[in-house]
Design goal:
Layout lengths: L2 H29 L3 E3 L1 H14 L4 H13 L10 H4 L1 H16 L2 H7 L7 H7 L2 H16 L1 H24 L17 H6 L6 H6 L15 H11 L3 E3 L14
Antiparallel strand pairs: 1-2
Length: about 250
């Protein structure tokens, strides 16, 4: 197999794993307390995020909770309504880091997530985690593939994460009364996150899909974890302001 094709395939898999960990652990577990995870699955998600994204969870949570507190008005860390679509799509990492480094945001929106012993030893050291991830790729696939995978994964993860904020507040369907949108095609490649209008309507729901045709692979993974005793869903179904069939 050509090194670029091999690298692209590996990078896509890693990116999807990182997106899955983001939507389940950072978004649905920590930010909204929509479910609880068992100790084993919690540790696996923490390691995956550490090695594939370098994200410090409490920073991500603080930024996301502020987004819900100031959705699409001044104060929203990454609103295309405020900042412009192109800026959020292609400079979201700048907006995220600016908000994530704000100590007042952390104090106000992530005070329930103080660093534990694992954070102090490992997970608050993002460069170490990313370095170990790249080292694993180097050992398994060699230097060229490791380099290509790292670059493709980085670009893919950043663009997909940005798309949830940019596309997900600009283009798509708005069945509920908020400025977020549903895009099923985006949901397919972001493990359900493209169903953003649903999420803003029911932020504490563990399930983002509300219709049979809507795809939320994050929810499928949660159900698997629940079946093996590694997840407990707090709200199996969102509280609906009007009848909606969940199938």
């Amino acid at each position: 197999m050509h090194p670029f094709i091999e690298s692209a395939v590996i990078a896509i898999i890693i990116t999807q794993v990182a997106i899955m960990a983001t939507t389940i652990y950072l978004h649905r577990v920590l930010s909204h307390r929509a479910l609880k995870l068992g100790k084993v699955s919690t540790f696996i998600f923490r390691v995956v995020l550490w090695m594939t994204t370098g994200i410090i969870p409490r920073q991500w949570v603080a930024v996301h909770r502020k987004h819900h507190a100031y959705t699409d008005v001044v104060g929203d860390p990454h609103s295309p309504v405020v900042e412009g679509y192109l800026f959020v799509q292609f400079a979201n990492v700048y907006l995220y880091r600016k908000a994530a480094k704000n100590k007042e945001n952390l104090r106000k929106y992530a005070k329930d997530l103080p660093p534990d012993a694992w954070d102090r030893a490992l997970f608050d050291r993002p460069l170490l985690g990313l370095g170990i991830g790249i080292l694993v790729l180097f050992i398994l696939f060699g230097p060229l593939v490791a380099l290509l995978v790292s670059v493709i994964h980085m670009v893919g993860y950043l663009l997909l994460s940005a798309a949830v904020n940019a596309i997900g507040h600009t283009f798509g369907d708005r069945p509920y009364k908020n400025l977020a949108t549903n895009n099923n095609w985006l949901a397919i490649i972001t493990c359900g996150e493209g169903l953003h209008n649903n999420h803003h309507a029911f932020p504490t729901a563990a399930r983002l899909s509300l219709k049979r045709a809507q795809i939320d692979t994050g929810w499928w993974t949660i159900k698997f974890l629940e079946n093996i005793g590694q997840a407990t869903v707090r709200l199996p179904r969102p509280k609906m302001p009007s009848p909606v069939t969940i199938s």
